[in-house]
Amino acid sequence: MILAIETSCDETAAAVTKGNRVLSSVISSQVKLHSKYGGVVPEVAARAHIESMILVIKEALSRAKVKLGGIREIAVVNGPGLLPSLLIGVQTAKSLSFALQKPLIPIHHIEGHVYANWIGKTSKSIPFPALCLVVSGGHTELLLMRGHMRFKKIGATQDDAAGEAFDKVANLLGLGYPGGPMVSKFAEKGDRKAFDFPRPMFDSENFDFSFSGLKTAVMLEVRAFKKKTPEFVRNICASFEQAAVDVLVFKTSEAIKKFKVKSVLLAGGVAANKHLRRALSKELSCKFPRVKYFQPDLKYCVDNAAMIGVAAGYKRSIKKQKQFFEIEVEENEEL
Length: 335
Ligand code: KG4
Ligand code: ZN
Hints:
Layout: E1 2-6, E2 11-18, E3 21-29, H1 31-35, H2 42-64, E4 73-79, H3 83-100, E5 104-108, H4 109-115, E6 130-135, E7 140-147, E8 150-156, H5 162-172, H6 179-187, H7 212-224, H8 230-259, E9 263-267, H9 274-287, E10 292-294, H10 306-318
Helix pairs in contact: 2-3, 4-10, 5-6, 5-7, 5-8, 6-8, 7-8, 8-9
Bound molecules: 5'-O-[(R)-(carboxyoxy)(hydroxy)phosphoryl]adenosine and zinc ion.
Zinc ion binds at residues 109, 113, 136, 268-269, 303.
């Protein structure tokens, strides 16, 4: 059994996992705390993590019906993320490891997001090579996986991440924070063709992305149209979402062709976007019927510790020889 801890941004999360099974997953969200600032304030986040960390761990152990003594290893996200936030989770994990004399397993935040796809499945249910489309608030990447824990980055955003673009568009429209779910909600009832927004890097010969130009195009429309009527807001959201989803789906398709993968995995906070889930699944079943498509359950798309515990199980079995007792925070760690 693994006790997993995640505090890289504004969720204090702990979980108990056993293999790919989740025995408990507890998340204390700080959304209300940060919404008045329109984004996450790192020091405020860290203070809130300190207040809830122990309570969240206790709750995770109690829901899993295990005592600390029954835990074999402690997994923790040590990067990337907000430094003050990461420090709280990592220091807690180190203290527990020292007091209980149990090894630590450091997990990269993106490894966790990708492994959300294995929750509840057998380890062989996802065939390799696999292509992962990682879309979160801080990352937009295409990763090639040739085996468990073997990642190769084949494309990434050159500026804003997809989730960041959703949040900024929401901000322009005054929809609050976090913006992704709000933009998505308004988009459901809007006209996806109302505005002809650019599809950045559609014609580039690589697998990179760019979302800042798209965000600027939205900003220019919003500034030009003084009255933000509900219909205008819905149409902006729908047209923006369509442009972002088109680029993500197109680049994923191109990468499938080039790397001849057997499966595609969606991951990250934006993986909760219903339009993206539908569009990717439709594109794959029409164009690549032999490629298996996976997307995490909605509750495991946003930051959580269950995905960290499941990833840690694989990291431990692959890096058997390595026992971690001393780990450091890696604020900008590359996968
Ligand atoms: O993975 P995550 O929880 O945190 C990071 O690792 O960054 O992702 C958070 C991001 C935010 O930008 C949020 O607006 C976006 O995911 N997001 C969504 C949706 N739900 C969350 N974006 C679009 N549609 C959604 N339904
Ligand atoms: Zn995340």
